[in-house]
Amino acid sequence: MKQRIQAILEQLNTGLIERKEPIRLALLSALSGEHLLLIGQPGTAKSVLARKLHLAFKGGEYFERLLTKFSVPEELFGPLSIKALENDSYLRLTDRYLPAASIAFIDEIFKANSAILNALLTILNEREFDNGDARVKVPLISVIAASNELPDDESLAALYDRFLCRYQVAPVSAQNFSNLLQLQDEPVTLADHLLFTEQELEHIQTQADKIKLPDEVLTFLADLRDFMQQQQIYVSDRRWRKVIKLLKVAAFTNAQSAVSIWDCYLLQHCLWQTPEQRQLIINWYHTQVGMSGAVNLKTLNKLTLTWERVLEQDQDSKIQQVDSNNQLLFVNRQGEVSADKITQVTRTREGNSLYLAPPDQEDRSNNSLGYKQDELKQLFFDDRYQQTHINGRWVHFNQYIADPENCYREEYTNEPCMEAKKHSIAFIESRIKETSNLAKDIVELQQNLHQQHATLEQVIGQHLWLLDDFSKLASSSLNKAIEQTEKLFSRLQTVMNSYHQLPRL
User: Fold this and answer.
1) What is d(CA 6, CA 358) in angstroms, rounded to the nearest whole number?
2) In this structure, how many other beta carbons lie within 10 angstroms of the beta carbon of residue 26?
3) Are 65 and 106 in contact (CB under 8 A)?
4) Residue 116's closest CA among 82, 149, 154, 75?
5) Which residues contact 253 (CB under 8 A, 6 or more apart)?
6) Any idea what the CATH number is for the domain that residue 37 is in?
7) What's the structural domain count of the chain?
8) What is the DSSP letter of 193?
9) Residues near 212 by Cβ (< 8 Å), separated by ≥ 6?
10) With contact defined as beta carbons under 8 Å apart, do 264 and 220 qualify?
């Protein structure tokens, strides 16, 4: 089937310039049972894409219509049957109109008015049309819609959401302008054996439903959802479900047994609300290559950072010193080491030692200010003999201040005398073992990234739904991821070496 689709894509691209991506997106949308919205100015081959898409399917009608604000339901769904009206039945003649089409192109889709909108939504989503009192199935495969601008009316939000794939069509670039001027109109005819039948479409979607979603893809999508919410880009639950269907169809038709991270590059066409947001998704995608799965760059970086912080704590850990009698040691104000936790220190004021008043004073501390020597001598000692009477005897001033009991002292809690903590060999070996295991995970991821890089061309070089230059972009992303693993390993190697150098018991 892959070769068959490749042949179809080659034929559909005949006569087009710089339209490979929207052609692939149109065909993938149709095979997935989804619709494509093209945003762009007139004259950028939007209707041509739809007509070419119709060529890939056997049988079925093609329908095309340009809507205006004055369009009426008859233009899309067919005129009322006069005969039916005569019999009091409200039936439309739908042949050659949208309810009878397999592929349709609706230009200026957001000009749809309320008279058209409900029936159009039902056809797009449920593939059903209310004709008279009966709801009938329609053979619609896919609709390609076009608009010069995005809808600005909230009533059109549901219609906008019906188009899973969205693509902004630009004019042909300056490099290919001369080729455009010389382009020949060539009729495109696909061989009958290449065309898809209704039964084959059902088979593709049934088999695609069995395609696996690996854990790394589920993790990737969960991270992408978080990113979209951070960017305040709304993506409905219904759209996420449809995204999975599209990815599975892409994987199945590309002969894969499971959806890959590479397939997820297609999501740039499914999740934006404005064209500018597409580049945000692309940029995020390239930063995440190599970051999905149980062992990924994001997790490894967090773990490495954690170990760097743990190392800092272990390096800074201190323990209080002890003397030969196993008594805790402290450092006093003078920087001397002793076993005393509390030290009595003489208080000072303006650089002068302070003293207490004689014991017969009610407040010896002078309201906690104490007394300098000159204050003490003037207030409590006589001028001639420099004595004062204490407890029935005369005490000379010099004798008084020499008595430690008369010094105004305060208790000072000495700082613990700390030294770098010495760790047990078992502790250090445990730390080294844990960091070594993390280093092995980094090496394992690095090897996986190298393996992905080596097989990149083989895996995605011939991918049906990705452009030919995608392998270069993927290669660049993988190289950046490999560089990050090298930096992580270097950081962790520094951590392990530092643990080897920790003080040991």
Assistant:
1) 110
2) 25
3) yes
4) 75
5) 1, 2, 5, 28, 31, 204, 208, 464, 465
6) 3.40.50.300
7) 4
8) G
9) 257, 258, 259
10) yes
What phi-psi label fits residue 456: left (phi over 0), alpha (psi between -120 and 50 degrees) or beta?
A: alpha
Shared domain for 390 and 456, answered yes or no, is no
- Please say which residue of 207, 222, 253 terminates a domain: 207
Hey, what are 117's tokens? 């909108």
pTM (two decimals): 0.72
Cβ pair 103, 62 in contact under 8 A: yes
d(CA 320, CA 150): 71
Compute the residue count for the chain. Answer: 505
Beta bridge partners of 258: 212
> On the CB side of 390, how many CA atoms lie within 13 Å of its CA?
15
pLDDT 10s digits, 394-453: 999 999 999 999 999 988 899 999 888 889 999 999 999 999 999 999 998 898 888 888
End position of a domain, from candidates 182, 207, 232: 207
- Tens digit of pLDDT for each residue in 182-241? 888 777 888 889 999 999 999 999 999 999 999 889 988 999 999 999 999 999 999 999
DSSP symbol at 299: H
Host domain of residue 490: 297-317+421-500
Rounded to 10 degrees, what is the CA torsion of 302, 303, 306, 312?
Answer: -130
